[in-house]
Every structure is written in C-alpha cells, then in structure tokens.
Amino acid sequence: MDETAKYLIHAEITAAGIVERSDVVGAVFGQTEGLLGDELDLRNLQDSKKVGRIDVDIRSESGTSFGEITVGSGLDKVQTAILAAAFETIDQVGPCSAEIVVTDIEDIRSAKRRAVVERATELLVEFDADAVRTEDIVETVRQRARVDDITTFEGLPAGPRVADSDAIVVVEGRADVLQLLKHGVKNAIAVEGTDVPDAVATLSRERTVTAFLDGDRGGDLILEELAQVGKLDYVAVAPRGHSVEELSREAVTAALREKIPYEAVADAESPEDALDGADEESVSLGSGAGEGDATTAVAGVESEAAGTTTAGSQPGTTSTEPTEADTGAPTVLSDHIDAVIGTDSGTVRLLDAELAVLAEGEAADAVSLIADCEPAPQTVVLDDTCSQKVLDVAAQRGVEVVVATGDGEYVKQPTSVQVRTV
Question: Based on the domain organization, do 151 and 244 belong to the same domain?
Fold first, then answer.
C-alpha cells in the first residue's frame, strides 16, 4: 500500500471515555461496513491493496480519549473524499460515544514534489556557490595561498611576519587577520576580545603598533583597553557600523594609509571624531581596487610587495570643500541602512559607487526602479526581503550589493551580487 498510496486521510477522534487503538479500528470497520456498497467496502479495499492500514494514535486524559487517525488511499480523489466522509459517520467506539472529524486529505505526490523543489533549490545554490569563474581562478589561488599563511603568536591568530617585524597591526579577531592576509598585510595579530592578552600588551611596548579596529562600540572599548595595558603609536578605524573583516582591498589600504597618531585620538570621544578631517570616501565599502593597490607600502604595515616596514607619513590636510557630511546627507552605507531599513520606511534606495542616491521609491516597485535607473546603481538598500526577481534584475544591471531585511527563496543566486541581511 505504501508504494501505491496517492493520498493520506488525516482525522481527529474524541471519545467520552477510555478507549484503545483496537476499539477505534474495530469501530471504523464495523460502522462503515455496507455503508458505501461493495466497491468502497473498507475490508475489500484493504484486501485489494487500494487502502492501507488504519494508523491510530490514542491517548487518555481525565476520562476522555483523544487521538489521530491516518489512512493511506490509492483510490482516486473523489473516492478518497467519499471514504473520508464515511469516517465522520462513526459515533460510537466501544461503549463510549465518539466523534471523528477529518482534518485534511494530503496529496502525497504534491508533498513529494515540494520536497523535490526545495532540495533541488538547495543543490543549485550549493552548486553556484562552489563555482569558480575562469577569470577568478588566479585571484582565488592567490588568496588561498595567503590565507594559508595564518599562524599563531603566543596562542593568538597572527600573520607570519608578527614574530620578526618591527611594526604590528592589532585587530579584533581571527577573521580580521585573514582579511588583511588576503590583501597582503602579513603583520597583523588579533586580541580576540576586549580583554587584551598579555602577549599583545608586551609586543606593543617593543614594536611600532597600529590599532586597526571595527567602527563600533567594541572597537572603542578595545582601543581604550590597549591604551591602558600597552603602548599605541597609530590608530586606523573601519567606517562606522562596519568591521575590518568586510572591507575591500582599497578600503584596507586607504584606512591604514590615513591612520593617525594615538595622541590625536586619546582626547576624542571616539576614533571617528579624531578622523573627521579624513576623506571617508576613501575607506568606503566597495568592490576593491586592482592588485597594485593591495601591495602599496603603507606606514607600519608589512605588505606582500614591500616585505619590510616603511616609514609612515602624517595625515593629509583637510579639504575646505563642503562634503556630504556637511549637508546632512548619508556618507556611509550604514547611514542609508538606518534611513531605509532602520525606520521601517517600506522603501528602496538606489546608490551609486560614491553612495549618492540615484533613485528612491516604494519597496514594492524595487524591480522596476532597478531596471529603469540610469546610471545603473552599485548598491541597493531595500526595506523588504530580497526576492528572486530583485536578485535577477540586480545581476542584469551590474549591482554589486543588495542590503535587505531578509533572504527570499532563491532558485538561483547570481555570484556577482552580494546579499546582506539586516
């Protein structure tokens, strides 16, 4: 029967007394016998394998019995519905009055088809995620070779040059060390928490130290702790609301190049206050620059090309031209996220490479807005889930990042579009 069943009849039973499974099965056979004629007689249907066994799960509580009945059917849809309706005519189980209510007739084939679609979608996503485009092969091999260089120093994640370099870069976690290695910085060491290890404190007194921290409260706390237990020379910070591990090659290089002496940060409420004069656009999240930018010798950093520590330069002069920050417009991606998603605005905002607003409208119109926007947006901030249609049009228009409230059900996820959820 299991091999030929097309439908499952689900029913609930309530009996005014204590009954057992055998009582329920007996009542089903006894009270439906002769009700529907020989063609739909339950015993005949079981003998011919057109109906499966009657599964009953019964339990008793406070003198009343409750349970579920499940019957597999190989009949057609109409005959199965008639048989299910016949079960509801049963009003006695053993010595107790009872009531049976059919709750569902499940199409087994439809359930299997749904399972096939869900599994096929998972396999397709895994297949696309593992695919490596021809143009990515050289960079993928290079990055993996750099990541393999990660070592430990006094039990802490570190780049291979920490032990012998005159300068070190202190970051928050292992993921930050890996990201810097990917971009050619080999003298980074992670503190792994706000409680700075003694090994890092000791190193800070012997080397030239740059603290390269996330742009959040955690980064501020680590900076404060580092200053108390050790010695700091320079400070570099990721854009507010972002972490070092998600920065592009261009952003990493720019942030380290524009680091400032710790003395300039010590009296500020946060590192960002001391960096107000720096060009925030140079450390914005982006797709990254070419390989030449990653191997530029940055002050206090062991880069892959330079191989040794180079002398640093002081921060550049502050521009007197009005900036987006002066006009009150968002200057970093997190500001746009706060404005669109943080306020439950129900809108979508399209941004160019400089994070300037190209278009804005209702979230429901996201597909048409992305398709019609000129020039094509680089980033989309959406106060809604990222659907397959949004993902497809984003890939067609060359969008690099979609920030949404959640992921939709993707049949295929293009590798060219990065989806971030808030």
Answer: yes
Chain segment 380-406, per-residue pLDDT in tens = 999 999 998 998 899 889 899 999 998
Q: Over the stretch 148-170, which tens digit does the pLDDT of each residue have?
A: 578 889 889 999 889 888 889 99
Question: 324 lies in a domain?
Answer: no
Residues 161 and 244 in one domain: yes
Assigned domain for 313 exists: no
Domain total of the chain: 3
165 with 273, same domain: the answer is: yes
Q: How many residues in total does the chain contain?
A: 422
Q: Which domain holds residue 273?
A: 135-294
Give a yes or no: residue 302 inside a domain: no
Verdict on whether the full-model pTM lies above 0.70: no
